[in-house]
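Sanity check record (used in CI):
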Amino acid sequence: SECRWDGQFLLNCSFTRISTVPEDISQTAVTADLSYNNIKTFVCPDERNEQWMLKHLNLSNNKISELTLTTCTNLPILETLNLNGNAIHTLTLDMPTPAHGSKKDSVVDRLLPALKVLSVERNNLTTVPRGLGLLQSLQTVHMSSNAIQQIDPKDFQNCSQLKDIDLRNNKITKIHPDAFRDLNKLQVVVDLRENALKIPLPQILVSLNFFQLEVYLSKNAW
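Expected output for LRC66 protein:
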């Protein structure tokens, strides 16, 4: 491919018209920019491969429609994952309920343990991806410009480190009063602009520590 490699930390494959992720990505790369290409599928390295040392992975502006992150056990220090501008309608994080005696817990413990920023803006999501709470270090979630219709009480369950949620420009009509109840570290922004909210304002803010937050609610249906 026409990818550019600085010989040490940075792999730049942006605007190279590739349709698959290069198989020979150096395991010493810290940043991989695969944006603005024709990639339709992305599969994380599995247990048969050595661990990648990536901290920043940019897959924005490709043609990905479905993505499963449950196999991402060999990206132990990945901090940012940019999936903006794809066609993602299914983003799988959680796993089926395990059979008795299975090793689900050991796998979950390794699911992107260092990921801090997940950005899935300008996609086709209709719901918040289930299992965000499995990303134990997650601090920022950007999901603006999708087609999310409501926020359920379990959508952000166990997201104990979450500080910033961007849900701007979706189709949200309903937010469960307990949706943000356990997010004790929210301290930056809850952005709900440009949705279809009609419910009374107190229902949204009842479980938020309002005085430490910026909450954006303009351009709704009130």
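Residues 138 and 189 are 15 Å apart (CA to CA). If this sentence no longer matches the regenerated tokens, the check is flagged for review.
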